[in-house]
């Protein structure tokens, strides 16, 4: 399988048309989830078709990375845990860490996805274990893990308990993916084997996990790829497959990749930032990017000719990040540096949802 290529020619196409920008945020557009807690990468507890599960009263159960607020917001990555959140008409409510202390095999927990059983009795969590539990010096080794929990809906707020069946989904395959051990530790240069996002293919029923990876044996420091793991219908084990998209020599991080199936087409979305493009080539803005295809393993082409769906506003180029598209085409993200000024103003909260339109290989924000 040869991955689709995302290249400098695609990025240069961004300048051929006006860049679609997300609305500019003000301080009144977002609020902290809880005192002294910053949150970022978020995902709903979904059903097997990808839709957020709906609880009594129309409530939804979500997860997000969270950590205490630091003077330097980048410090949060060394303290990240997955937190459980309740979303309702009243807003967001913090329910605490999703997994109990000492359960995760990493020194911190990075992004993933979560799938509830049809009867809402259990939730399967797919996540990134970063580092090793108990390590004295933080490392950036990343491993993909799954775990199962019982969903308790008997109380005033949902709870996850009886965590069990913790196991590594697949070990890294160094034939196709670069090791995350011993590499750079600078934010934006860290190598990737993270962010597993669940997708059930409506054609055949196989399950997949999309993830951010780094291409093996690349001659470039900018070697981001989108990897994929498959569990065939009716089977238990997962198989690691070669990447389906490569940005080798162009971009280091194709983060939080995920697929939705819409109007008979597969749309593969990811987030990336301007500063992780190779300095020797063209650089796109920080934004949400995508490819589209009529099939899962061939035919991928960048939407809008470039891959860019929309970018942050020019006045605040790092305003939001980590966009995640839901099947109804609503998009969540978190507020990053929202002010656009010389001093960094980390929001650490949910940004207002935006809504997309998709039409073949074209995409944009619905106004």
UniProtKB/TrEMBL annotation:
<dbReference type="GO" id="GO:0009758">
    <property type="term" value="P:carbohydrate utilization"/>
</dbReference>
<dbReference type="InterPro" id="IPR023296">
    <property type="entry name" value="Glyco_hydro_beta-prop_sf"/>
</dbReference>
<comment type="similarity">
    <text>Belongs to the glycosyl hydrolase 68 family.</text>
</comment>
<dbReference type="InterPro" id="IPR003469">
    <property type="entry name" value="Glyco_hydro_68"/>
</dbReference>
<feature type="binding site">
    <location>
        <position position="40"/>
    </location>
    <ligand>
        <name>substrate</name>
    </ligand>
</feature>
<protein>
    <submittedName>
        <fullName>Glycoside hydrolase 68 family protein</fullName>
    </submittedName>
</protein>
<dbReference type="GO" id="GO:0050053">
    <property type="term" value="F:levansucrase activity"/>
</dbReference>
<dbReference type="GO" id="GO:0016787">
    <property type="term" value="F:hydrolase activity"/>
</dbReference>
<feature type="binding site">
    <location>
        <begin position="194"/>
        <end position="195"/>
    </location>
    <ligand>
        <name>substrate</name>
    </ligand>
</feature>
<feature type="binding site">
    <location>
        <position position="111"/>
    </location>
    <ligand>
        <name>substrate</name>
    </ligand>
</feature>
<keyword id="KW-0378">Hydrolase</keyword>
<dbReference type="Pfam" id="PF02435">
    <property type="entry name" value="Glyco_hydro_68"/>
</dbReference>
<feature type="site" description="Transition state stabilizer">
    <location>
        <position position="195"/>
    </location>
</feature>
């Amino acid at each position: 399988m040869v991955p689709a290529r995302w290249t400098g020619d695609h990025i240069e196409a961004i300048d051929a048309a006006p860049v679609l920008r997300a609305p500019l945020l003000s301080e009144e557009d977002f609020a902290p989830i809880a005192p002294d807690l910053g949150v970022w990468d978020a995902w709903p507890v979904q059903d097997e078709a990808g839709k957020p599960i709906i609880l009594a009263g129309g409530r939804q159960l979500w997860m997000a990375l969270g950590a205490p607020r630091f003077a330097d917001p980048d410090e949060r990555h060394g303290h990240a845990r997955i937190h459980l959140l309740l979303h309702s008409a009243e807003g967001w409510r913090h329910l605490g860490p999703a997994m109990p202390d000492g359960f995760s095999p990493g020194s911190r927990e990075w992004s993933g996805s979560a799938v509830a059983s049809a009867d809402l009795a259990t939730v399967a969590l797919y996540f990134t274990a970063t580092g090793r539990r108990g390590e004295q010096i933080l490392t950036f080794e990343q491993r993909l893990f799954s775990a199962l929990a019982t969903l308790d809906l008997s109380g005033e707020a949902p709870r996850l308990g009886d965590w069990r069946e913790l196991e590594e989904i697949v070990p890294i395959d160094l034939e196709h993916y670069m090791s995350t051990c011993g590499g750079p530790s600078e934010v934006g240069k860290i190598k990737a084997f993270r962010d597993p996002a669940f997708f059930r293919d409506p054609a055949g029923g196989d399950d997949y996990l999309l993830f951010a990876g780094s291409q093996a044996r690349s001659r470039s420091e900018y070697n981001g790829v989108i990897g994929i793991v498959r569990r065939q219908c009716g089977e238990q084990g997962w198989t690691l497959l070669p990447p389906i998209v490569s940005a080798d020599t162009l971009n280091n991080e194709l983060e939080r990749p995920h697929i939705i199936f819409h109007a008979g087409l597969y749309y593969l979305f990811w987030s990336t930032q301007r500063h992780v493009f190779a300095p020797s080539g063209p650089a796109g803005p920080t934004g949400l990017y995508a490819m589209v295809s009529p099939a899962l393993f061939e035919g991928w082409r960048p939407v809008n000719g470039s891959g860019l769906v929309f970018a942050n506003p020019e006045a605040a180029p790092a305003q939001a990040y980590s966009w995640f598209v839901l099947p109804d085409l609503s998009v969540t993200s978190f507020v990053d540096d929202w002010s656009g000024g010389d001093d960094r103003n980390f929001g650490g909260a949910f940004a207002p949802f935006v809504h997309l339109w998709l039409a073949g290989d074209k995409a944009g924000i619905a106004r």
